[in-house]
Amino acid sequence: MMRAIGLRSGWTFFTLLICSLISLLVLLLRHTTAAQSHKKNCNLFRGSWIEDETNNYPLYNSTHCPFIEHEFNCQRNGRPDKDYLKYRWKPHGCSLTRFDGGAFLKKFKGKSIMFVGDSLSRNQWLSLVCLLYTSQPKANYNTTRVGDVSIFTFLGNWIYDNSYPFYNSSICSFIEGQFNCQGNGRPDKLYLKYKWKPNACELPKFEGLEFLKRVKGKKIMFIGDSLSLNQWQSLTCMLHAAFPKLNYTLQRKGDVSNFVFQDHNVSLILSRNAFLVDLVKEKIGRVLKLDSIQNGDAWKGFDMLIFNTWHWWLHKGSQQSWDFIQKGDQIYKDMDRLVAFKEGLKTWSNWVESNIDPTKTRVFFQGISPTHYSGKEWNASKPSSNCNGETQPISGSVYPGGPMAATTIVKEIIGNMSKPVTLLDITLLSQLRKDGHPSIYGMNNNNGTKIKKGNDCSHWCLAGVPDTWNQLFYALLLDQQTKSSNTI
Ligand SMILES: *[C@@H]1O[C@H](CO)[C@@H](O)[C@H](O)[C@H]1NC(C)=O
Ligand SMILES: *[C@@H]1O[C@H](CO)[C@@H](O)[C@H](O)[C@H]1NC(C)=O
Ligand SMILES: *[C@@H]1O[C@H](CO)[C@@H](O)[C@H](O)[C@H]1NC(C)=O
Ligand SMILES: *[C@@H]1O[C@H](CO)[C@@H](O)[C@H](O)[C@H]1NC(C)=O
Ligand SMILES: *[C@@H]1O[C@H](CO)[C@@H](O)[C@H](O)[C@H]1NC(C)=O
Ligand SMILES: *[C@@H]1O[C@H](CO)[C@@H](O)[C@H](O)[C@H]1NC(C)=O
Ligand SMILES: *[C@@H]1O[C@H](CO)[C@@H](O)[C@H](O)[C@H]1NC(C)=O
Ligand SMILES: *[C@@H]1O[C@H](CO)[C@@H](O)[C@H](O)[C@H]1NC(C)=O
């Protein structure tokens, strides 16, 4: 029996990694009962077994399914006859659709499917895992077993692609010095050449014209810290590079930058805002108000909003931008930063619930962008090392340092919302890119003057990883029409 867990509907909680991430879980608990036919005029459960004339059966060869359990692997255990493999179930009055692994993965992208039952559930679960695996033999996958729960997940990885990067940063005259790694003298270029390859599908190629068509007449606002700046700048460079002759204007007013393609009437707006909730100067000092979000007045009337917040919640010492935290009437000198982050996000989610009309505004959350300051997270040869000097991604789909707690919180909050918010789940794919940061090549000004000394393992070079975030964003825009069909 299939059941979606923890998900309300396809696009309320449609993470992006998702087309690469299908989890099949099995929990051995109790016996399950029969399913119902989904076809109206044909009872799929009444029929007979016939020998398959097309020679398509069996649907897979068990020796090619690496995780099949011995108890089910009859051929490997020496069963001599093979005829039993050749039969296909034929309902009276219709035919069963042939199992199509690719279509299955597409339909259930981003879903978790759980089989709950005894060893016969395990039997069915393994059959499905083998069917899907055989349809994607080159896919990366992860199987784990924790107690009674087994999980099978399709993942993605970074592969070399000579057609990358999307643009040469030298063409993007308005690029901020901090992202212009090549312009700042970064000597290696391999990091520019990687493409994210989800395993259960291909990311669509970024087509600048198609993007502009889809968003014609629209105002798109990125709201968040400098990682929002990073993604916004990536998108403006990608589009400008696709159409260098297209007229644009770029205006900055205070914390808001507006990049406009007049001919398509498209505005890409960046609003710098580190916490989303309010940071207010009061008599006692700077107060971060976890349950106040008057900032939100400036976010109304846009066609798309892409939010992000995280990094500033962690800063301490001179980097900390508040003196006190306020929740309700309580004033705190400090608190667990994850707890504060969660409270802030709850306030943000309430703002979305009460202020967003989903027929007018589409809301995204740019997922948590990871840093690479600690080499022991990815098993670097020197645990004291950081992103500086890293020239290649981590191969495969697993970040040795494990998932980020902040991502778990984001998913929990978004999963709890009734208004649709799409999570750009960029965390894992970015975690694998220890090579993608500016490191010591992020601190120059546009004209080459050093403005700060340091090592930036937090932002990302452009061209680079945020271009892939935007490719994912683009894939979601293309997927917009089909979003209703993502619901199980
Ligand atoms: C399955 O594959 C193995 C090795 O490729 C082959 O020896 C075996 O005959 C195949 N089994 C069936 C039932 O086709
Ligand atoms: C598979 O995923 C689990 C849970 O996310 C993780 O702990 C484990 O290291 C992964 N397995 C492999 C082989 O990478
Ligand atoms: C970008 O263009 C400049 C000027 O045309 C060229 O010198 C440089 O090698 C190019 N960079 C890359 C990474 O291709
Ligand atoms: C541009 O789009 C806005 C809606 O965002 C619309 O009100 C305006 O009329 C459009 N302008 C032109 C010149 O098409
Ligand atoms: C850019 O704007 C100028 C002046 O408004 C106009 O003549 C030109 O056709 C525009 N270029 C493009 C590619 O639309
Ligand atoms: C880390 O490196 C050590 C030594 O090279 C190796 O034995 C170990 O398996 C690695 N661990 C991971 C998670 O890659
Ligand atoms: C999710 O919603 C439920 C019911 O409204 C609430 O009890 C729970 O605290 C919420 N969880 C989070 C993380 O907001
Ligand atoms: C580089 O730009 C900075 C400010 O953007 C300016 O102060 C400095 O004089 C410039 N240096 C040169 C050599 O133009």
From TrEMBL:
It is a single-pass membrane protein. GO terms for molecular function: O-acetyltransferase activity. It comes from Solanum verrucosum. This is Trichome birefringence-like N-terminal domain-containing protein. InterPro entries: TBL, TBL_C, TBL_N. Keywords: Membrane, Signal, Signal-anchor, Transmembrane, Transmembrane helix. Belongs to the PC-esterase family. TBL subfamily. GO terms for cellular component: Golgi apparatus; membrane. Its main location: membrane. It holds the Pfam family PC-Esterase. It is found in: Membrane. Residues 40-95, 154-202 form the Trichome birefringence-like N-terminal domain. Residues 1-35 form the signal peptide. Residues 203-475 form the Trichome birefringence-like C-terminal domain.
